[in-house]
């Protein structure tokens, strides 16, 4: 730990390390929020910090659309109208491949585990397609969070810029956590990029990367007790030398 950096932050090195470790370790995907509004000052501060993430040759490829209030409600209504129509859903396509075309182990196992753990908490039984559809649809209301974020990137950028974008998203989630706010990054919006572009007047050269809910967690909601299992360091690391 750089002592000068810690002193500049008004903290000793140990307190600063603990604060950073807590922020990293306590971030979770929150799927139910309180109606408590988020102050514009906090939202601006979060985005202001997020922009300091690394990006290849300083390209800074991100563009953020913030939706609140009636704008958020209009967007949610438009997406849910499409989501509830099988004919519309059949013709929708995502702007890029977020997930593999064919799932395989161990990734499919982790995917199934988090899905069934969540459904188990909510009392949704296997085969209950109506309740699964309803629960998944909560994505498009941003899980009742007061703030929705939609992230876009110029379509001409390479795949490396999506790595840069991931760091930007992580910075947002951590800066929010440090202010007592929570988030949920959502690839679920990607199939609806045409609807989102129309509703928010997003230029055709911009591609949707993902969405995100942001607000104060409803700690009384059972879905927010979900804690996903993480692979141990020894299982994904090879030390050389």
From TrEMBL:
InterPro entries (alphabetical): Nitroreductase, Nitroreductase-like
Cofactor: FMN
UniProt keyword annotations, A-Z: Flavoprotein, FMN, Oxidoreductase
Regions that span the bilayer: none
Family, per entry: Belongs to the nitroreductase family.
All copies of domain Nitroreductase, residue ranges: 26-216
Protein name, entry field: Nitroreductase
Keyword Flavoprotein: yes
């Amino acid at each position: 730990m750089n002592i000068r950096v810690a002193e500049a932050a008004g903290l000793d090195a140990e307190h600063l390390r603990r604060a950073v470790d807590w922020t990293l370790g306590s971030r979770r995907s929150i799927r139910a929020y309180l109606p408590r509004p988020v102050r514009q000052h906090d939202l601006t501060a979060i985005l202001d910090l997020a922009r300091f993430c690394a990006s290849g040759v300083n390209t800074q490829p991100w563009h953020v659309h913030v939706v609140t209030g009636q704008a958020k409600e209009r967007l949610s209504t438009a997406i849910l109208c499409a989501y509830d129509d099988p004919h519309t859903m059949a013709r929708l396509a995502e702007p890029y491949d977020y997930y593999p075309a064919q799932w395989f182990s161990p990734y499919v196992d982790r995917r199934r585990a988090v899905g069934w753990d969540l459904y188990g908490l909510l009392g949704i039984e296997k085969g209950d397609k109506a309740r699964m559809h309803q629960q998944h649809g909560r994505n498009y209301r941003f899980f009742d969070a007061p703030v929705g974020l939609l992230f876009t990137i110029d379509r001409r950028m390479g795949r490396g810029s999506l790595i840069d974008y991931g760091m930007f998203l992580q910075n947002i989630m951590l800066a929010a956590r440090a202010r007592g706010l929570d988030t949920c990054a959502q690839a679920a919006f990607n199939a609806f990029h045409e609807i989102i572009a129309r509703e928010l007047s997003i230029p055709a050269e911009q591609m949707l990367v993902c969405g995100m809910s942001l607000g104060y967690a409803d700690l009384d909601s059972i879905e927010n007790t979900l804690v996903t299992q993480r692979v141990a360091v020894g299982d994904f690391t090879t030390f050389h030398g």
